[in-house]
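// run 5 | inverse folding | seed 20
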């Protein structure tokens, strides 16, 4: 029989109800309650999924063909890292190089000629030979000819001035001789005057007077007359005295007349010599034009040199223009990268041996490095475009065999207003920008394709499945 006391024991109930069916109910109930609560509070992202690729935010430069000539060197390769002036294409341009070489040789020749002409100009200005080495253009000989002309001019003027100086010296010597003669005559006049004054009783004659003998002869005659009176008798003495006095007066008058005649003759000679001296004049016809004529020669030589320099300057300008034009032509025979970046070769020119001038051949994208901005580009069907707007998050997952998926995120910055036809579908181009991290740089390339997920909003899981059941978007 069954012992009813066992009904009061928990052991009975434990053995009766402790089985899998009863134990599973509580976990399931707990899970259900948790899921129910999760459905109200947890959010599900609403997304638009499509494909996309990585594009540059801008094109640094576009490279075009510069010549119609045959390509002899082609270094275009997709994704090539460029530095400034990296050679991309080289065209056949041998004739252009030859012409450039000829123009450069002409330029060197004209520059050398201009340098030598500059030496000539400075030599003329400083009046000394400043040529440092042999002159192949004859400018040093031109300067030597100029110096010879200046020397000839100087010698001629010096010779002419020496003739004038000699003539003036002769005149001076003649004047000096005349003056000496006049002085001598004036001395003689003073001596005669002394003789006249002595004879007139107004003075005495010096012992060194050259005419002292003449005066002594005169006084001797006077004494002889006086002696005649002394020898006369007393009866005739008075008569003799009168006669002697008359003879003395006559003798004195004759003596003074003779002296005065000699003085007059001397004065006449002095007058004649004075007239002769006044007729002797120095010549003032010295040639003082050496400085002006030398300046004129220098000015003429400089004017000629300056004219040649102007011609050389014009030649240099013309040559520089030709060389610049030829360099431009030569530059057109080589296509170089104008900036640093990544090369993207346009597919329609691959394999061509000649490309018409002006045809785009490649584009330069910014280098991929830390903090460089790139565009995450997606093409969204027209049926889903209405849910998109600027500022929404766009996730780009790179489709590569990587241990860890490479995911990039950005905010939508641009949505095209018109669709683009691709493979018979109307797709809208959507772009989002993002900054690269250092860990992204080694894994990414322009043109990489991947999966694009655009988050358009979120709902609770309850609302999401409710709308699905009710057929709402």
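// decoded
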């Amino acid at each position: 029989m069954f012992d009813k006391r066992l009904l009061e024991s928990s052991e009975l109930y434990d053995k009766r109800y402790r089985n899998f069916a009863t134990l599973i109910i509580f976990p399931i109930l707990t899970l259900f309650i948790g899921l129910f609560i999760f459905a109200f509070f947890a959010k599900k992202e609403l997304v638009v999924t499509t494909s996309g690729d990585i594009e540059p935010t801008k094109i640094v430069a576009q490279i075009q063909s510069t010549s119609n000539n045959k390509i002899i060197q082609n270094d275009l390769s997709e994704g090539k890292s460029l530095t400034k002036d990296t050679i991309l294409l080289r065209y056949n341009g041998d004739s252009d190089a030859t012409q450039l070489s000829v123009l450069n040789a002409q330029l060197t020749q004209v520059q050398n000629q201009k340098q030598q002409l500059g030496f000539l100009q400075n030599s003329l200005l400083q009046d000394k030979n400043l040529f440092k080495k042999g002159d192949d253009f004859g400018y040093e000989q031109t300067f030597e000819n100029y110096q010879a002309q200046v020397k000839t001019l100087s010698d001629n003027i010096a010779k002419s001035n020496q003739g004038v100086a000699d003539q003036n010296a002769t005149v001076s010597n003649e004047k000096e001789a005349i003056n000496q003669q006049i002085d001598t005559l004036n001395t003689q006049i003073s001596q005669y005057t002394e003789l006249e004054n002595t004879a007139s009783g107004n003075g005495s004659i010096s012992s060194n007077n050259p005419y002292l003998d003449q005066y002594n002869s005169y006084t001797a005659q006077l004494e002889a007359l006086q002696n005649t009176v002394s020898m006369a008798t007393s009866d005739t003495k008075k008569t003799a005295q009168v006669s002697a006095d008359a003879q003395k007066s006559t003798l004195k008058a004759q003596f003074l007349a003779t002296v005065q005649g000699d003085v007059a003759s001397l004065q006449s000679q002095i007058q004649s010599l004075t007239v002769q001296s006044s007729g002797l004049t120095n010549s003032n016809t010295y040639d003082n034009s050496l400085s002006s004529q030398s300046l004129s020669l220098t000015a003429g030589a400089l004017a000629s040199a300056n004219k040649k320099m102007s011609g050389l300057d014009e030649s240099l300008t013309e040559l520089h223009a030709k060389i610049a034009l030829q360099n431009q032509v030569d530059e057109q025979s080589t296509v170089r990268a104008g900036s640093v970046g990544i090369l993207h070769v346009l597919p329609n020119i691959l394999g061509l041996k000649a490309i018409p001038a002006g045809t785009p051949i490649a584009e330069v994208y910014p280098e991929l490095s830390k903090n460089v901005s790139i565009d995450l580009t997606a093409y969204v069907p027209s049926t889903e475009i209405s849910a998109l707007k600027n500022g929404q998050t766009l996730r780009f997952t790179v489709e590569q065999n990587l241990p860890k998926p490479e995911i990039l995120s950005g905010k939508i910055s641009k949505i095209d207003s018109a669709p683009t036809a691709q493979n018979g579908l109307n797709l809208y181009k959507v772009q989002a920008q993002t900054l690269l991290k250092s860990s992204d740089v080694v894994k990414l390339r322009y043109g990489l394709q991947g999966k694009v997920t655009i988050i358009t909003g979120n709902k609770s899981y309850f609302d999401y499945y409710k709308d699905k059941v009710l057929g709402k978007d």
